[in-house]
Amino acid sequence: MSAPLFTHCCASVVVYTNAHSPERVSERLGVAPTAMAVAGRVVGPNRVGRWRVESRNVWLLDSATVVSESSPLDAHLDWLVDRLSSPVAFRNVVEELSLRPSLRCVWWHARGRGGGPTFQPAHLRWIADCQLSLELDLGGELQE
User: Fold this and answer.
1) How many CA atoms lie within 13 A of 101 on its CB side?
2) How far is residue 14 from each of residues 58, 97, 114, 139, measured CA to CA in Å?
3) Would you tell me how many other CB atoms lie within 10 Å of the CB of residue 104?
4) Which helix (DSSP H) or strand (DSSP E) does residue 16 occupy?
């Protein structure tokens, strides 16, 4: 068996909730986020001892909290699909509340180049049905 092409990956649904609280989005979706930001909330201290004020409302469902980063991207997407199993219901909430959702996929190459993630048709259909913008963070360390 060959070594995987990636060192780590994850996927997250990110919803900028505008004037709506992330809690309201959770109530409407019937799904708890793995993280959220609330505009005006003071958070910290971070690892260098600084505090900050969150600038916007964000609802986040992130696979990195429960799926191993060494698992293929399919496993991360499967976890998200299981949580947001009804694209129609998700899309209805997005439209009703005028939200801006996106799917962010992080995929770091083990060798710095030569290949990338593969998306299965069922996942692409789910992304389209949920009307998610797709953002890819592709990277890795170049090894000369």
Assistant:
1) 26
2) 7, 15, 28, 20
3) 17
4) strand 6-16
How many residues are there in the chain?
A: 144
Per-position pLDDT tens, the chain of length 144? 455 677 788 999 999 998 999 999 999 999 999 999 898 889 888 889 999 888 899 999 999 989 998 888 999 999 999 999 899 999 999 999 999 999 999 888 776 666 678 899 999 999 999 999 999 988 766 555
Is residue 70 within 8 Å of 4, Cβ to Cβ? yes
Tell me the sheet residues that pair with 102: 14, 133
Q: Which two tokens stand for residue 96?
A: 């009703």
Tokens linked to 109: 């190459």
Q: Are strands 133-140 and 100-109 parallel, antiparallel or unpaired?
A: parallel
- 84 Cβ partners below 8 Å, 6+ apart? 13, 29, 31, 61, 90, 130
Which pLDDT value is given to residue 55?
83
C-alpha to C-alpha distance for 92 and 95, rounded to whole angstroms: 5
Assigned token pair, 76: 């991360």
Residues 134 and 101: their CA atoms lie apart, in Å, by 9
